[in-house]
Amino acid sequence: MKMKLMALSLALMGIIASCTKDKENDTPTGNGVVKLEFFNNVGSSILNLDNQWYLNEHGDSFKVSKLNYYISNIKLNATYNPYTETESYHLVQQSDASSRAFDLATVPAGTYTGLTFTIGVDSLRNVSGAQTGALDPTNGMFWSWNTGYIMFKMEGTSPQSGQLDKGLVFHFGGFSGANSVLRTVTLNFATPIKVTTSGENHVHITGDLLALFKSPNIINFANTSSVQMPGAEAKGMADNYANMFTVTYAGL
Amino acid sequence: MKKIWLCITLAVGVGWLSTVGCKKDTISPDSEEPIAFSVPVGWPAPSYTFANNKLTQDGFTLGRKLFYDGRLSRDNSVSCGSCHQQFSGFAHLDHPISHGINNLLGTRNTPGLSNMAWHPAFFWDGGVNNLESQPINPIENHVEMDMTLPEIITRLNTDADYKKRFKAAFGDETINSQRIFKALAQFMGAMVSADSKYDRYVKGEAEFTDQEKTGLTVFRQKCGGCHAEPLFSDFSYRNNGLLPDPLVNDTGRAHITREVTDKYKFRVPPLRNVAVTKPYMHDGRITTLEAAVERYRSGIFASPTLDPALTGGITMTDADKQAIVSFLHTLTDTAFLHDARFAEPK
User: Fold this and answer.
1) Does residue B337 sit within a domain?
2) B343 occurs within a structural domain
3) B84 in the same domain as B30
4) What is the pLDDT of residue B6?
5) What is the DSSP string of chain A?
6) Residue B336, domain member (yes or no)
7) Counting C-beta atoms within 10 Å of the first and last residue's C-beta, which end of chain A has fewer, N or C?
8) Among all residues of chain A, which has the CA nearest to that of B176?
9) Which pLDDT value is given to residue A96?
10) Is there a domain that residue A189 lies in?
11) Looking at the partner chain, which of A130, A137, A229 has a beta carbon nearest the beta carbon of B182?
């Protein structure tokens, strides 16, 4: 597969090179690398799993034991030729640093102004049967009783939690209709990045977990501490996480 | 997509050779009758088309081995075939609700398995949307097999025969969840039951008795609106007037959609091989076919979501009822129930 893609992109490069020569000599050619890195924060502090207390907008304290989410269908936006990653499915897990950074390895040279991605896994892959890689159900992000991916998962504890064990269990899923929790986010770079065949661009995307409990829907853990099925609660919190990401760095 | 399918019949007996590669490293015995999938005449296009999971002899036999392997359960005691028994149309004879590991009981009756490729969704509430995604549920369910996928993969990796079979089916020895599910889908998807007396009667190859003929006529009038031919289900979700069990309070389709209007609605079950798949209904509360038919006349429980077609019950004479029952017996496909290709390998 990789080989084929390589061959294909080489061929494409060839075509592009031969076409552009006639038109414009200064059109950049070749592919470059853009490294995407996800950082999870809680307000202004770095997210520490298990051993740090935080305060949500409502004033409830909480600890986080798990934070996982899918990022899919990544697109780099450009005035002329946007770039769309193929097989674009990434599972970002706070417990696994290697999952939080990945390369877009074959981005055509050019200028990009920002990026667009989906939080979650698009509906097609939720109905297409057995998947592998980031979408393998062994990753624990799949519901077997009501087929579909858990797009976003946060677990922890809070003394204010309405559960007997004071747990917080937020598993957000649902890919169709009114209760879809898929959210597409577009973020602009402060200054456009220039992708060239040499030099690697870095894009830092910071997720603020406080946003999950804040806006437009303030979450009060006494009332909402366990969401494990598609529905209005999940949808409301998806509207919140749609606002959680910002680009904190973009450049070489 | 569907149109393309109509034109295609997978003649796998020949086709599979090409996917295995140059080395014909196949392990299926020569005596094995080749598996093939074709759409019976007059049937609609299937939902599961094998488009991304080419049916091959080695994929099918691997799926069969997995289906009958107790190692897919925590204590090695329960296989898919423990609950889905061939002689019972792949249902669980005389078990009203599923009976899994450590004798733990679930809450739903094991449905028969056949013609799975035509099912748009799975389970009594339609919660699972793809045949390949279905096995995760029984494997991980604590009262069924109580296993984890990584543990199964570890177990299978210690078995040289499985490695050989994964290689033959998928090109290399890698064992992952996707390949396990695709192999199981090949096995279950190829289980087509379309050779009952009813099928042969429709094709003009068999005679019905007068009672069976009457039964078919009455059935078409009174039952066919939901149990639509040729699969004997329109795959909709309906409340057919069962009194909800207050202890379990299984809300059926509403469990998936969260809509009150779907409360107590269940998938209309296909009735093929229904004479051998007792007990009946989502919780197995009815033990005989006679009682299942009689209930439509005298035992309809009215509730807000009861299907309008069943308001006041279905009127039928005793003779009509007997005729329907004998007609339902013509849906038994003896060849399917004894097909060695679907049986546990000796």
Assistant:
1) no
2) no
3) yes
4) 38
5) -HHHHHHHHHHHHHHHHHHHHHH-TT---SEEEEEEEEEEEETTEEP-SSS--EE-TTS-EEEEEEEEEEEEEEEEE-SS--EE-SS-EEEEETT-GGGGEEEEEEEESEEEEEEEEEES--HHHHSS----GGG-GGGS-EETTTTEEEEEEEEEE-TT-SSTT-EEEEEEE--SGGG---EEEEEEEEEEEEE-SSSEEEEEEEEEGGGGGTSSS---TTT-SEE-SSSHHHHHHHHHHTT-EEEEEEE-
6) no
7) N
8) A132
9) 97
10) yes
11) A130
How many structural domains comprise chain B? 2
**Residue B280: DSSP 8-state:** B
Whether B187 and B110 map to the same domain: the answer is yes
Number of domains comprising chain A = 1
Domain shared by B140 and B81, yes or no:
yes
Confirm whether B334 is domain-assigned.
no
Domain housing B263? 197-329
- Judged by CB atoms closer than 8 Å, whether chains meet at B149 and A147 is answered as no
Closest CA of chain A from B150, distance in Å: 7
CA distance B210 to B319: 12
pLDDT of A21 higher than 50: no
Each residue's pLDDT tens digit, B136-170: 988 888 777 888 999 999 999 999 999 999 999 99
Shortest CA gap A132–chain B (Å): 6
Same domain flag for B175 and B257: no
Burial of B45 (0-12, 13-18, 19+ CB in 10 A): middle
Same domain for B164 and B224? no
Amino acid, single-letter form, for residue B54: K
Q: Which residues fall within 8 angstroms of residue A122, CB to CB, at 6 or more apart?
A: A72, A73, A175, A182
pLDDT tens for each residue of A158-215:
999 999 999 999 999 999 988 999 999 999 999 999 999 998 999 999 999 999 999 9
Q: Cis peptide leading into B111, omega within 30 of 0?
A: no
| Residue that is last in its domain, among B139, B174, B194 | B194
Chain A from 217 to 236: CB within 8 A of any B CB: 229-231
Instruction: Give the whole-number percent of chain A exceeding pLDDT 70.
Output: 89
Enter the pTM of the model. 0.87
Which domain CATH number covers B24? 1.10.760.10
Q: What is the nearest CA distance from B294 to chain A, expressed in angstroms?
A: 32
When pLDDT is averaged across residues B59-80 and rounded to a whole number, the result is 95
**3-class state of residue B29 by DSSP:** coil
Task: Determine, for residues A144 and B128 on separate chains, whether the beta-carbon distance falls below 8 Å.
Answer: yes
Tokens 């329109």 locate to B234
**What is the pLDDT confidence band of residue B27, given thresholds at 50, 70 and 90?**
low
A145 closest CB neighbour out of B127, B130, B150:
B127
Q: Please give the angle made by the CA atoms of B181, B186 and B274, to the nearest 5 degrees.
A: 105
Collect all residues with Cβ–Cβ distance below 8 Å to B336 and sequence separation of at least 6.
B89, B114, B191, B192, B193, B195, B273, B342
Q: Report the residue of A123, A126, A136, A146 to disrupt the B interface, i.e. the one with the largest count of B CBs within 10 Å.
A: A146
- Region of B265 (left: φ > 0; alpha: ψ -120 to 50; beta: rest) is beta
CB-nearest to A129 from B123, B131, B141 is B131
Q: Are residues B17 and B134 in the same domain?
A: yes
